[in-house]
Write a structure and sequence with these properties.
The complex is a heterodimer. Chain A contains 8 helices and no strands. Chain A is mainly alpha-helical. Chain A has 2 domains: 101 residues, Orthogonal Bundle (Rna Polymerase Sigma Factor, Chain: A), CATH 1.10.1740.10; 82 residues, Winged helix-like DNA-binding domain superfamily/Winged helix DNA-binding domain (Arc Repressor Mutant, subunit A, Orthogonal Bundle). The longest helix of chain A is centred in the middle third of the chain and has 32 residues. By secondary structure, chain B is mainly α. Chain B is elongated, with a radius of gyration of 44 Å. Chain B has 5 helices and no strands. Helix content of chain B is 78%, strand content 0%. The chains are: A mainly alpha, B mainly alpha. Chains A and B meet through helix 2, helix 3, helix 5 and helix 8 of A and helix 1 and helix 2 of B.
């Protein structure tokens, strides 16, 4: 079954088509989510949310863009929403701690190890992920899609709905900012 | 002692640490969990739907409207009689002022000899 057929069947509410869609795209959705939110459990929740939204709103997919582009947009939007919500919670937790009501829930783990990173690179990758948190959203998304989803610049441009030059500029600025942050980090710490 | 060359080397290592990284794979039984969540959502939605259907029945809506109007009428009737009572009390006071005892006192004043 090719992709347009699969989408037509999905739009008709075919459960087998939905199963096929989940099987085919689950790793892409999960990997993108985990690279952005940097937490495996949260990424799992987002992955489920994404597929539920796809199931509920597949009728609105008109085929004007590639299906993968549409799916990436949903994952990115949900992941960024999650990051924002977590930041808000963190701020609220800080305010609560000032009044002596420290939140018990762990807001952010110290170090994130991406499951796909090679073992010998894990330590440096964790430092890179920490630095990535400080990037503006658009630089972070462009860098993540480029590095962890191995997306071509043209595809990133389609996903982010910007020009090719804008993507190149975002990635270059992301690398520059990451270099600055990492340089400052290694200058301060004893390694 | 850290020197710039070491720092630059570490920075480059970190920046290149994602090279050759594979995709993280989703946890098993994803479809089962998605189906369970969708079913859960549908149950929640259906209970709301039932509540809305019940409220929108003409008989229920009319009864609710009558109840609200009745409560309003009760509140109004509770608040306004108080004012009527006050007015009556004022009338009593003014009547008292011209009562026979007051007139008698006035007459006493008139009868006082210089």
């Amino acid at each position: 079954m090719n992709q347009p057929e699969l989408i037509v069947q999905l739009q008709q509410g075919d459960e087998q088509a939905f199963k096929k869609l989940v099987d085919e795209w689950q790793d892409m959705v999960y990997n993108t989510a985990v690279s952005i939110v940097q937490n495996e459990d949260d990424a799992d929740d987002i992955t489920q949310d994404v597929f539920i939204q796809v199931y509920q709103s597949i009728s609105s997919f008109k085929g004007e863009s590639k299906f993968s582009t549409w799916l990436y947009r949903i994952v990115i939007s949900k992941s960024l929403d999650h990051v924002k919500k977590k930041k808000r919670k963190k701020r609220f937790g800080f305010v609560q701690s000032l009044f002596g009501n420290a939140q018990e829930e762990e807001i952010h783990p110290e170090e994130f190890n991406h499951p796909g990173v090679l073992m010998e690179n894990r330590e440096r990758a964790a430092e890179l992920f920490k630095a990535m948190e400080q990037l503006p959203d658009n630089q972070r998304i462009a860098f993540t899609l480029h590095k962890l989803e191995a997306q071509k610049h043209q595809d990133i441009a389609a996903i982010m709905n910007i020009s090719l030059t804008a993507v190149e500029s975002l990635i270059a600025r992301a690398k520059g900012n990451l270099r600055k942050t990492l340089n400052a980090y290694y200058t301060k710490t004893n390694f | 002692m850290k020197n710039n060359r070491d720092i630059n080397r570490l920075t480059d290592e970190a920046l290149n640490s994602l090279d050759g990284a594979g995709r993280a794979t989703a946890k098993p039984y994803l479809l089962t969990r998605i189906n369970a969540r969708m079913q859960n959502q549908n149950e929640k939605e259906s209970s709301w739907d039932n509540a809305l259907k019940f409220i929108s029945r003409p008989a229920v809506a009319l009864a609710g409207l009558c109840l609200i109007i009745g409560i309003n009428a009760m509140v109004v009737s509770y608040n306004y009689p108080g004012k009527t009572t006050t007015a009556t009390e004022d009338q009593y006071v003014s009547v008292d002022e011209y009562s026979s005892s007051s007139i008698a006192v006035l007459k006493d004043f008139e009868n006082i000899e210089p």
